[in-house]
Amino acid sequence: MPYRFATDRQDYADYAGGKVFYSLPGYPAFPVRLASEMLQRCLAVREASGSPGRCTLYDPCCGGAYHLSTLVYLHWDAIETIIGSDIDEQALALAQRNFALLTLHGLDKRIAGIQLLLNTYNKPSHAEALESAQRLRTRLSNLTQTHRLQTHLFHADVMNTSALQKELDERKIDIILTDVPYGRHTAWKISDTDHTPGWQMLESLRSLLTPDAIVAVASDKRQKVAHQAYRRVDHFQIGKRRIVLLMLS
User: Fold this and answer.
1) What is the DSSP letter of 50?
2) Interatomic CA distance for residues 111 and 101, integer angstroms
3) Along the 249 residues of the chain, how does pLDDT read in single tens digits?
4) Within 13 Å, how many C-alpha atoms sit on residue 172's CB side?
5) Which residues make Cβ contacts (< 8 Å) with residue 115, sequence separation at least 6?
6) Out of 43, 83, 98, 106, which could bridge 58 as a Cys pair, Cβ 3.0 to 4.6 Å?
7) Full DSSP string of 95-139
Protein backbone atom coordinates (compact mmCIF):
# COMPACT_ATOMS: atom_id res chain seq x y z
CA MET A 1 0.00 0.00 0.00
CA PRO A 2 1.82 3.17 -1.18
CA TYR A 3 -0.23 5.43 1.07
CA ARG A 4 1.07 5.25 4.62
CA PHE A 5 -0.56 8.37 6.08
CA ALA A 6 -3.29 9.57 3.69
CA THR A 7 -4.94 6.18 3.97
CA ASP A 8 -8.53 7.27 4.42
CA ARG A 9 -10.41 8.14 1.28
CA GLN A 10 -11.13 11.70 2.33
CA ASP A 11 -13.47 13.79 0.21
CA TYR A 12 -11.23 16.37 -1.48
CA ALA A 13 -14.00 17.81 -3.66
CA ASP A 14 -13.78 21.26 -2.05
CA TYR A 15 -10.11 21.43 -3.10
CA ALA A 16 -10.66 20.55 -6.76
CA GLY A 17 -8.72 22.74 -9.18
CA GLY A 18 -10.91 25.27 -10.97
CA LYS A 19 -13.66 25.12 -8.36
CA VAL A 20 -12.46 27.53 -5.67
CA PHE A 21 -8.73 27.22 -6.21
CA TYR A 22 -7.58 28.63 -9.52
CA SER A 23 -6.27 26.61 -12.46
CA LEU A 24 -5.33 27.23 -16.07
CA PRO A 25 -4.81 24.94 -19.08
CA GLY A 26 -1.22 23.73 -19.15
CA TYR A 27 -0.83 23.88 -15.37
CA PRO A 28 -2.19 20.51 -14.22
CA ALA A 29 -3.34 20.16 -10.63
CA PHE A 30 -1.14 17.85 -8.56
CA PRO A 31 -3.23 15.21 -6.75
CA VAL A 32 -4.23 16.52 -3.31
CA ARG A 33 -4.02 13.14 -1.61
CA LEU A 34 -0.53 12.48 -2.98
CA ALA A 35 0.72 15.91 -1.91
CA SER A 36 -0.66 15.24 1.57
CA GLU A 37 1.06 11.85 1.71
CA MET A 38 4.38 13.37 0.66
CA LEU A 39 4.20 16.09 3.28
CA GLN A 40 3.17 13.73 6.05
CA ARG A 41 6.09 11.43 5.24
CA CYS A 42 8.42 14.42 5.42
CA LEU A 43 6.97 15.47 8.77
CA ALA A 44 7.39 11.94 10.13
CA VAL A 45 11.07 11.87 9.08
CA ARG A 46 11.59 15.29 10.67
CA GLU A 47 10.05 14.17 13.92
CA ALA A 48 12.09 10.96 13.95
CA SER A 49 15.20 13.10 13.44
CA GLY A 50 14.35 15.16 16.51
CA SER A 51 12.91 18.20 14.72
CA PRO A 52 9.21 18.45 15.54
CA GLY A 53 7.30 21.69 15.30
CA ARG A 54 6.10 23.86 12.47
CA CYS A 55 8.16 23.95 9.31
CA THR A 56 9.12 26.25 6.48
CA LEU A 57 7.81 24.55 3.34
CA TYR A 58 9.15 25.50 -0.09
CA ASP A 59 8.45 24.46 -3.68
CA PRO A 60 11.03 25.85 -6.15
CA CYS A 61 8.95 24.63 -9.13
CA CYS A 62 5.57 25.62 -7.74
CA GLY A 63 3.69 26.36 -10.96
CA GLY A 64 0.28 27.70 -9.97
CA ALA A 65 0.90 26.70 -6.30
CA TYR A 66 -2.31 24.70 -6.26
CA HIS A 67 -0.88 21.86 -4.20
CA LEU A 68 0.91 24.22 -1.81
CA SER A 69 -2.33 26.06 -1.16
CA THR A 70 -4.34 22.91 -0.52
CA LEU A 71 -1.62 21.59 1.81
CA VAL A 72 -2.04 24.69 3.96
CA TYR A 73 -5.73 23.91 4.49
CA LEU A 74 -5.00 20.27 5.24
CA HIS A 75 -1.90 20.71 7.43
CA TRP A 76 -2.04 24.25 8.78
CA ASP A 77 -0.74 23.28 12.23
CA ALA A 78 2.44 21.81 10.73
CA ILE A 79 3.38 24.85 8.61
CA GLU A 80 4.88 28.13 9.79
CA THR A 81 5.90 29.57 6.41
CA ILE A 82 5.06 28.54 2.87
CA ILE A 83 7.21 29.65 -0.07
CA GLY A 84 6.88 29.13 -3.80
CA SER A 85 8.98 30.09 -6.79
CA ASP A 86 8.98 29.32 -10.48
CA ILE A 87 10.72 30.39 -13.68
CA ASP A 88 7.35 30.85 -15.42
CA GLU A 89 5.87 34.30 -14.70
CA GLN A 90 2.41 33.29 -15.93
CA ALA A 91 2.43 30.38 -13.49
CA LEU A 92 3.43 32.75 -10.68
CA ALA A 93 0.51 35.04 -11.48
CA LEU A 94 -1.75 32.03 -10.99
CA ALA A 95 0.12 31.11 -7.80
CA GLN A 96 -0.47 34.59 -6.42
CA ARG A 97 -4.22 34.14 -6.87
CA ASN A 98 -4.13 30.78 -5.08
CA PHE A 99 -2.00 32.15 -2.24
CA ALA A 100 -4.57 34.91 -1.80
CA LEU A 101 -7.05 32.17 -0.85
CA LEU A 102 -4.94 31.49 2.25
CA THR A 103 -6.30 34.70 3.80
CA LEU A 104 -9.86 35.47 4.85
CA HIS A 105 -9.78 38.69 2.83
CA GLY A 106 -8.73 36.87 -0.34
CA LEU A 107 -11.22 34.09 0.18
CA ASP A 108 -14.03 36.60 0.75
CA LYS A 109 -13.18 38.23 -2.60
CA ARG A 110 -13.29 34.81 -4.24
CA ILE A 111 -16.67 34.08 -2.64
CA ALA A 112 -18.02 37.40 -3.92
CA GLY A 113 -16.79 36.55 -7.42
CA ILE A 114 -18.41 33.12 -7.37
CA GLN A 115 -21.64 34.65 -6.05
CA LEU A 116 -21.65 37.09 -8.96
CA LEU A 117 -21.20 34.22 -11.42
CA LEU A 118 -24.06 32.36 -9.78
CA ASN A 119 -26.33 35.41 -9.92
CA THR A 120 -25.44 36.01 -13.56
CA TYR A 121 -25.49 32.49 -15.02
CA ASN A 122 -27.21 30.37 -12.32
CA LYS A 123 -25.18 27.28 -13.14
CA PRO A 124 -25.13 24.30 -10.77
CA SER A 125 -21.32 24.32 -10.90
CA HIS A 126 -21.29 27.87 -9.52
CA ALA A 127 -23.65 26.88 -6.71
CA GLU A 128 -21.38 23.94 -5.84
CA ALA A 129 -18.31 26.17 -5.94
CA LEU A 130 -19.99 28.67 -3.62
CA GLU A 131 -20.81 25.94 -1.11
CA SER A 132 -17.21 24.71 -1.23
CA ALA A 133 -15.85 28.23 -0.79
CA GLN A 134 -18.07 28.80 2.23
CA ARG A 135 -16.92 25.55 3.82
CA LEU A 136 -13.31 26.52 3.17
CA ARG A 137 -13.93 29.90 4.78
CA THR A 138 -15.29 28.28 7.91
CA ARG A 139 -12.22 26.03 8.04
CA LEU A 140 -9.80 28.88 7.40
CA SER A 141 -11.46 31.05 10.04
CA ASN A 142 -10.82 28.31 12.60
CA LEU A 143 -7.28 27.64 11.42
CA THR A 144 -6.20 31.26 11.62
CA GLN A 145 -6.99 31.31 15.33
CA THR A 146 -3.90 29.17 16.06
CA HIS A 147 -1.10 31.09 14.35
CA ARG A 148 -0.37 33.47 11.50
CA LEU A 149 0.88 31.85 8.32
CA GLN A 150 3.77 33.52 6.48
CA THR A 151 3.78 33.32 2.65
CA HIS A 152 6.28 34.30 -0.02
CA LEU A 153 6.28 33.96 -3.82
CA PHE A 154 9.05 34.95 -6.18
CA HIS A 155 10.33 34.53 -9.72
CA ALA A 156 13.51 32.46 -10.05
CA ASP A 157 15.12 29.58 -11.88
CA VAL A 158 15.61 26.62 -9.54
CA MET A 159 19.04 26.10 -11.11
CA ASN A 160 20.18 29.61 -10.10
CA THR A 161 21.39 29.26 -6.52
CA SER A 162 22.34 32.91 -6.08
CA ALA A 163 18.87 34.08 -7.18
CA LEU A 164 17.25 31.70 -4.72
CA GLN A 165 19.53 32.81 -1.89
CA LYS A 166 18.86 36.46 -2.62
CA GLU A 167 15.10 36.03 -2.44
CA LEU A 168 15.18 33.83 0.64
CA ASP A 169 17.48 36.30 2.41
CA GLU A 170 19.29 33.74 4.59
CA ARG A 171 16.04 31.96 5.48
CA LYS A 172 16.63 28.22 5.63
CA ILE A 173 14.20 25.59 4.42
CA ASP A 174 12.93 22.64 6.46
CA ILE A 175 10.98 20.81 3.76
CA ILE A 176 11.13 21.07 -0.02
CA LEU A 177 8.21 19.41 -1.76
CA THR A 178 8.08 19.64 -5.52
CA ASP A 179 6.75 18.02 -8.67
CA VAL A 180 9.56 18.49 -11.16
CA PRO A 181 9.00 19.45 -14.82
CA TYR A 182 8.13 16.72 -17.25
CA GLY A 183 5.62 16.03 -19.95
CA ARG A 184 4.11 18.06 -22.71
CA HIS A 185 3.54 21.46 -21.09
CA THR A 186 6.59 21.69 -18.83
CA ALA A 187 10.25 20.91 -19.39
CA TRP A 188 13.61 21.58 -17.78
CA LYS A 189 15.60 24.55 -19.03
CA ILE A 190 19.24 23.64 -18.43
CA SER A 191 22.67 24.49 -19.81
CA ASP A 192 24.82 21.91 -17.99
CA THR A 193 24.79 18.72 -20.04
CA ASP A 194 27.28 16.91 -17.77
CA HIS A 195 24.69 16.26 -15.06
CA THR A 196 21.03 15.30 -14.99
CA PRO A 197 18.46 18.03 -14.28
CA GLY A 198 17.63 16.31 -11.00
CA TRP A 199 21.27 16.44 -9.88
CA GLN A 200 21.54 20.10 -10.86
CA MET A 201 18.40 21.00 -8.91
CA LEU A 202 19.63 19.22 -5.80
CA GLU A 203 23.01 20.91 -6.10
CA SER A 204 21.34 24.32 -6.36
CA LEU A 205 19.17 23.67 -3.29
CA ARG A 206 21.92 22.39 -0.96
CA SER A 207 22.84 25.75 0.55
CA LEU A 208 19.20 26.59 1.32
CA LEU A 209 18.55 23.65 3.63
CA THR A 210 18.59 23.26 7.38
CA PRO A 211 20.85 20.37 8.53
CA ASP A 212 17.88 18.00 8.95
CA ALA A 213 15.83 19.22 5.98
CA ILE A 214 13.91 16.80 3.78
CA VAL A 215 13.62 17.15 0.02
CA ALA A 216 10.60 15.34 -1.44
CA VAL A 217 10.54 15.12 -5.24
CA ALA A 218 7.86 13.68 -7.49
CA SER A 219 8.95 12.86 -11.03
CA ASP A 220 8.13 10.51 -13.83
CA LYS A 221 9.82 7.11 -13.98
CA ARG A 222 12.36 8.20 -16.59
CA GLN A 223 13.99 10.88 -14.45
CA LYS A 224 16.75 10.19 -11.95
CA VAL A 225 16.68 12.46 -8.91
CA ALA A 226 19.88 11.74 -6.99
CA HIS A 227 23.03 13.49 -5.79
CA GLN A 228 26.07 12.24 -3.90
CA ALA A 229 25.57 14.86 -1.14
CA TYR A 230 22.13 13.42 -0.28
CA ARG A 231 20.94 10.10 1.07
CA ARG A 232 17.57 8.55 0.30
CA VAL A 233 15.35 8.12 3.36
CA ASP A 234 12.14 7.02 1.69
CA HIS A 235 10.64 6.31 -1.71
CA PHE A 236 7.39 5.08 -3.20
CA GLN A 237 5.44 5.08 -6.44
CA ILE A 238 1.88 6.14 -7.26
CA GLY A 239 0.78 5.47 -10.81
CA LYS A 240 3.31 7.03 -13.17
CA ARG A 241 4.84 9.20 -10.46
CA ARG A 242 7.93 8.19 -8.53
CA ILE A 243 8.50 9.95 -5.22
CA VAL A 244 11.81 10.11 -3.39
CA LEU A 245 12.63 11.69 -0.01
CA LEU A 246 16.21 12.85 0.49
CA MET A 247 18.30 14.31 3.29
CA LEU A 248 21.80 15.75 3.26
CA SER A 249 24.39 13.09 3.98
Assistant:
1) T
2) 10
3) 689 999 887 899 999 999 999 998 878 789 999 999 999 999 999 999 999 899 999 999 999 999 999 999 999 999 999 999 999 999 999 999 999 999 999 999 999 999 999 999 999 999 999 999 999 999 999 999 999 999 999 999 999 999 999 999 989 999 999 998 753 334 555 555 678 899 999 999 999 999 999 999 999 888 889 999 999 999 999 998 999 999 999
4) 9
5) 130
6) 83
7) HHHHHHTTSHHHHHHHHHHHHHHHHHH--HHHHHHHHHHHHHHHH
